[in-house]
Amino acid sequence: MIRPRLPFAFATALMIAANAYADGNIRGTVFSKNSTEPLDFVSVQLVNPTTGVPMQIGTMTDENGTFVIERAPAGTYIIRFSNIGSITQEREIRIGDSEVNIGRIELADDAKLLQEVVVTGQRSQMSVNSEHRVFNVSSNIASTGASADELLAAVPSVDVNSDGEISLRGNSDVLVWINGKEMGMNADNRAQLLRQIPAETIESIEVMTNPSSKHSTEGTAGIINIRLKEDHRHGYFGSAEADIDTRGNANVNFNINYNEGKFETFAGLGLKSHHNPGGVTSRRSYNEGYFLNSDGDNKKHENSAFLRLGTNFKPDENNTLYLSAIGTFGHKWGHTATTHLSNLPGQWTSNINNARESGDTRGANVMLGYRHLFGHDHHIDMNVSYNIWQGPNDNRFREDETWADGSEETIWQSQHQDVKISNWEAALDYSYKFLPWLRLETGYKGNYNHENSPASYAAGSSAENLQPLDNLYNRFKYDTDISALYLNFSGHYEQLTFSAGLRGEIWQIRTRSLGYGQTDNDVPEFKKNDFASLASFKIC
User: Fold this and answer.
1) Sheet holding 66-72, edge to edge
2) What is the pTM of this model?
3) Could you tell me which residues are beta bridge partners of residue 319?
4) Where is the TonB-dependent receptor plug domain (predicted)?
């Protein structure tokens, strides 16, 4: 069922109005009587029982169907629950000095109205709070057929260049997460991994330029968090979609959910074939009539698959055990041809450069977690995940040089690299909103990373005569163990939003750089242990 939603500005106005009074709080949860799923964006409003006129006191339900009207004045009122596509429900309530918990409210579908409604509303494409900006992918019409890196390029302040390198506000020192986890991504492999994630699987993109002490301080520019979709509707349902463009790019996506009883199970598969032709033209002129001209074209191709599986087990309303897995498989190949012409002294007059690349990416993430709800806005979440990313990458170059005296030279070069990255991530997060205007967050974060990526090189006068360049061989081994504890207070008071916290991190770094034929016994290990603490405070 698709439910039209009221404008975000109207919801905000209701919430601001609700904060203008100060006596008692009203809370509860709204569900669909037909599907038993929580209802979000339901209008909850107080009505004058004498005149029947709605008052400027109310709010909207959140994604879990819960609502809180804070500091409503004492008295007797009618509370009205309304949602387009549902039958409006009203109840009489009396507000005193204490909190009023209405409990569970169930709204039945309005069958007649549902048959007549054909125009649906959408969430705002962007929402902002004190810590991050959230870009809702489902509200972006350009997301169809796109990939994660293409969506990022459309986010304000985020730049993605032609090689897939990401920067935030001009700074490339940025962390990119999926569902709040690094999942083994780094600056070397994330461009290809993000190209394999279909936009149809993404719910939102969060941009944090000034993260709280809860989050890592490693990315100085900030954090970009990609949240994948979740569907908690009751029953058995799925979707399939496919698209193709005039350049031969094609996408096929399948999703299926089975939510019955105490289990919620989902699976998704995305297949993508991407072709990206391009070219470059450069004209450089120097004093005394010298020049260097370049003309090139390239064709890059990539086929990939993105697999997602998971299940949530809910023995009761307060406990959830969840297990999920993500797998990516990709193969890329391409060709670049560039012609350079020059009359600079001491240099060739013509250089024709042909480059070919190919590579594979195989990655997987498995996460196991547990979440317990103590009450409204009071929970603890703990999880552990294992990530592995690997795959060979090959590059081959041929240069045909012609010199002013008519002599010619052909140079062949090749590079081969095996990327092997694995890591464990662990987290324990506790959150409690113990005052209407103040939230406490505290917990533990751990990231234990291992990288072993050898790179070899060869050169020669022909493709059949390539000789290894053993002096350039390098096996880089890099281990980092990071453990962190954090404490953070955040909230709002009247028109002010604030956050203050403290984070402590223990770092343990172990690295080796091995040459050709060397073992661990031949090269001493570089070791560094460090402790860092960070205090953060912001107000807006």
Assistant:
1) 66-72, 24-32, 100-107
2) 0.69
3) 316, 372
4) 145-214
